[in-house]
Amino acid sequence: MNAPTLSERITRGALIAAALFSVCLFLVLPLVSVFVQAFAQGWHLYLQAVRSSDVLSALKLTLLVTAMAVPLNVIFGIAASWAITRFDFYGKHILITLIDIPLAVSPVVAGLMYIEVFGRNGWMGPWLDAHNLHIIFAIPGIVLATIFVTFPFVARELIPFMQAQGSDEEEAAVVLGASPLAIFWRITLPNIKWALLYGSILAASRAIGEFGAVSVLSGHIRGRTTTLPLEVEMAYNEYNFTAAFAAASLLTFAAIITLTVKKIIEATSGVHTRAPREKDPA
Amino acid sequence: MSIQIENICKNYGAFQALKGISLTIESGELIALLGPSGCGKTTLLRSIAGLETPDEGAILLHGEDSTRTNVAQRGIGFVFQHYALFRHMTIFENVAFGLRVQSRAERLSRVQIRERVNELLHLVQLESYARMYPEQLSGGQRQRVALARALAVRPKVLLLDEPFSALDAKVRKDLRNWLRRIHDELHVTTILVTHDQEEALEVADRVVILNAGRMEQVGTPQEIYSHPASPFVYNFLGNVNLFHGRLLADLSPVDPAAQQQAHPAIGFVRPHEFEVSRSAGTDGRTLPATILRLNAAGPMVRLEMTVLDASKPVAVEISHARLRELSLREGDQVYVTPTEIRVFNSTAADDLVDFGAGI
Question: Which residue of A has its CA nearest to B150?
């Protein structure tokens, strides 16, 4: 390429400056202000707020919900992408579209849908009531909502990856006499592990931060059905800014951790940085 | 192990990939399935392996009907076009895989597995690569690993699906000679799928030529080359001149059956089956020609000529000695006499695909 001319350099400089300015204004500044606000009353009050039973129980519930939703999504994601990339069946394209529904539907709508199904006046409400099962305004509802919003992440990560890898290696293993289970553990899983981990990280960060769907289903019972994002809102509405920003800072830490893990996965595995199958040098 | 294929048919929706193939392969034979892409050769190979299930017909392995037998139970070694090595395993582990997944009763001990793998790596001359990963090897080396992996479980049949087509010309040539040597050493019944006629004719004991899901001809490389059974085979073997014409009674070295009727026909002449001279001579078959291009780089001198008023140029090959003798130049007027012509009725050539014959 030729050396850039003066006007090209000016354009480039202006674009970079504009991008940096918007990143600072819309991302960095608000992020910093979360911590500024959290520590506004000093370290002591911050720690007290974080250690308060409400924030701690919200943190525990958030982690519990994430720990339940992510593995379920991993299982579903593997099953769906295996079916889609390894078999031809009627309705395959419909399934691919269905997987994307949670990305298109507003989480609040998702929450309302579950109330419609499991709520007291919903389709399954009377039956659930009769068996003394609580889903709405209880932890199972929160888990359901979280599963719904994180549904596509693992599958969407795996499908293109498994498509690119093809089924050659699995066929080779079949011919060599490996059982389906052996093929899954020894060939498929090791090949998709990074993409799977990557998808799980995305699902986990979404699960931790989910507000809308969870808000509809939780019932906002302090110490019992409140996740961290809900705790932020509740504390804020009560003008308890230190507590609100303390909870917010925990969420921000979680985001930073997941982003770092994601970056490490990208760097070590090559997921999202290079094609899964490189061209073979002859 | 012998293989009998009885009237195999396979459809993919409306597309008929195999239209009734029957073939017997003797134990210890090396067979090449040769044909253009889409002719069904890979489908046939995968049906034998059990990776595809034929819609009709039967496959007998060693006299036993194995059409519905599980892939794993067929005792087959399969080599894929793109190697299909397990990318997260070392070369050693790749070769050992088939041995490690055997049922507990059949499985060799650790020490035996190590010995067997080392023996195979020695066979494919890759002992020093045991600890490397597939992506650290060249294409040719990877395909040798794939072959060692397939041989590890002592298959009774070795199936190779265009194993050398992703490699460059020189490596391809080395590997096919090497494959022949390995076959002569082990005598495993081997089926090689290829679209490269040179590869098939050079390596195989017998060649099966497939076209659009049917067998065109089966025979030794010598038979196939000397007596192509159909215009398709002649054309597919490549490097041939095609003449359209009307059969005349006095056209001498011709298929006697076709000679009886004087109707439209096509004749095939290979480039080296021409005599080139400066004078017309007395032979009735001699034709006047003009040299368009002359290429003397290579073991033979290649001439491109217009013969009579034919629109397509004709390819002719002569020796360097003959070139010096005649001191030919581009633009020269000469006379060519075909020494061998194979004639087919035009009707037989209706399904002939033009592979760019003539050059």
Answer: A176
Q: Do B166 and A191 touch (CB under 8 A)?
A: no
Residue B189 vs residues A262, B18, B24, B155, B288: alpha-carbon distances, Å: 50, 22, 12, 9, 51
pLDDT value at residue A275? 44
- Average pLDDT of chain A is 84
Give tens-digit pLDDT for B287-333: 888 899 999 998 999 999 888 766 778 889 999 999 899 888 888 88
- Count CB atoms within 10 A of the CB of residue B210: 26
Q: Looking at the predicted complex, does its ipTM rise above 0.90?
A: no
Q: Which of A176, A179, A183, A280 to mutate to test the interface with B (most CBs of B within 10 A)?
A: A176
The closest alpha carbon to B119, from B49, B185, B192, belongs to B185
Q: Which two tokens stand for residue B350?
A: 């209706």
Domain B234-349 has CATH 3.30.420.40: no
Domain positions in chain B are 3-232, 234-349
- Whole-number pLDDT of residue A41: 78
Q: Which residues of B touch A280 (CB under 8 A)?
A: 82-83, 139, 142, 166
What is the reported pTM? 0.76
Topology of domain B3-232 in CATH is Rossmann fold (3.40.50)
Would the CB atoms of B84 and A177 count as touching at under 8 Å? no
**pLDDT single digits (tens) B107-159:** 888 999 999 999 999 988 899 999 999 999 999 899 999 999 999 988 989 99
Structure tokens at B229: 């059974």
Contact A173/B72, CB-based, under 8 Å?
no
Q: What are the domain boundaries of chain A? A: 1-38, 42-269
Residues in chain B: 359
Q: In what order do the strands lie in the sheet with B342-345?
A: B241-246, B264-269, B342-345
A280·B139 Cβ contact <8 A? yes
Q: What fold is seen in the domain A42-269?
A: MetI-like fold (1.10.3720)
> How far apart are the CA of A265 and the nearest CA of chain B, in angstroms?
16
How much is the pLDDT for B251?
46
What phi and psi values does residue B191 have, to the nearest 5 degrees?
A: -120, 125
Report chain A residues whose CB lies below 8 A from the CB of B135.
Answer: 278
Q: What is the predicted pLDDT for the residue at B86? A: 94
Model pLDDT, residue A247? 84
| Parts of chain A with a pLDDT under 50 | 274-282
Burial of residue A190, with CB atoms counted within 10 A of its CB: 0-12 exposed, 13-18 middle, 19 or more buried? middle
Q: Residue A162 burial by CB count (10 A; 0-12/13-18/19+): exposed, middle or buried?
A: buried
